[in-house]
Design brief:
The protein is mostly helical. The protein contains 13 helices and 2 strands; from the N terminus they run ααααααββααααααα. The protein is 71% helix and 2% strand. The chain has a two-stranded antiparallel sheet with strand order 1-2. The longest helix is centred in the middle third of the chain and has 37 residues.
Length: 314
């Protein structure tokens, strides 16, 4: 009974401190006008691609009718039609779902690799640090866009279509997710490594090690919880970069292929009609701009909100 009475107030104090820190971070976030604006933009974009799918089916978005090709915006087609008569509004809805999915999944891959490499190199050091950091530097020296184009061109058409949740996806979606994830982890790994190097010498880590805590316990119970904030911020900003990367390579013709639409390959289809039919690129271009701006503003706000030393009231 004495043990229970001793530990209960400590747990309550820890819970109370966590609640106070969360409330403080939320207040800092809400005071950051750019972050709130970014969140509103993202809510709009996500609502657009979700609610839009209730208005149109994917088969309608992929249906082509050459008799209505290159029609300007009208009441029937609010964003016009493309060069083979597909409705741009419906295409941007389903294309947005794939672009956002690629962004989030590619960043998930990058965060898993970058965090793992950063923690292992920072905590264990020695020859592991030397080998993995040289690999990281080698990856950083490769021009990312050129590497993306080369790998996408080699593997893009070799993965069969995937049926998932009643939808058919081009196999190139998986290729693009993996490629972007494998070329985006290096910066995060260096950030995590520097944080771990300083954390592992902290007094609470030394005390836990003296009490017999294993390396795995130190990493998962003490180090990882203390690097969550910068990892979250980096991941948030990485989503915007991943969406842009997909748009680049799709615009250059080696990205996600038919029948799957993305904002990038919708833009790619507008290249030949840039002046003749500007509505082909305006809608996906604005949606990409809104998404990346929203993510960057949100990431900036999260950085200030999650930094305990920040008292910024932007």
């Amino acid at each position: 009974m004495a043990t229970l009475t001793t530990h209960k107030p400590v747990r309550l104090m820890e819970s109370d401190n966590q609640r106070k820190n969360s409330n403080r971070a939320l207040r800092r976030f809400l005071r950051h006008r750019g972050a709130v604006f970014g969140a509103v933009l993202l809510v709009f974009v996500i609502g657009y691609v979700i609610l839009g799918s209730l208005l149109f089916s994917e088969s309608y978005a992929n249906f082509n009718d050459t008799s209505r090709r290159l029609q300007p915006p009208s009441t029937e087609h609010p964003m016009g039609t493309d060069n083979i008569g597909r409705d741009i509004f419906a295409r941007t809805v389903y294309g947005g779902q794939i672009s956002l999915m690629i962004g989030f999944l590619a960043v998930t891959v990058a965060v898993l690799i970058g965090t793992t490499v950063g923690v292992v190199t920072g905590y264990f050091g020695g020859w592991i640090d030397v080998i993995l950091m040289r690999l990281t530097e080698a990856m950083l020296s490769i021009p990312t866009l050129l590497f993306l184009l080369m790998i996408a061109n080699i593997f893009g058409g070799k993965v069969p279509q995937i049926a998932l949740f009643g939808r058919v996806f081009s196999g190139s979606v998986v290729v693009i997710i993996v490629i972007i994830g494998l070329t985006s982890w290096m910066g995060l790994s260096r950030i995590v490594r520097s944080l771990v190097l300083s954390l592992k010498e902290a007094e609470f880590i030394t005390a836990a090690r003296a009490l017999g805590a294993s390396d795995l316990r130190l990493i998962f119970k003490h180090i990882l919880p203390n690097i969550v904030a910068p990892v979250v911020v980096s991941a948030t900003l990485g989503v915007g970069g991943a969406i842009l990367s997909e748009s680049y390579i799709s615009f250059l013709g080696v990205g996600v292929g038919a029948p799957t639409a993305t904002w990038g390959n919708i833009l790619e289809g507008s290249r030949q009609f840039f002046e003749q039919a500007p509505w082909l690129w305006v809608a996906p271009g604005i949606l990409i701009l809104m998404t990346v701006m929203g993510i960057n503003f949100l990431g900036d706000g999260l950085r200030d909100a999650l930094d305990p030393r920040s008292d910024k009231s932007a």
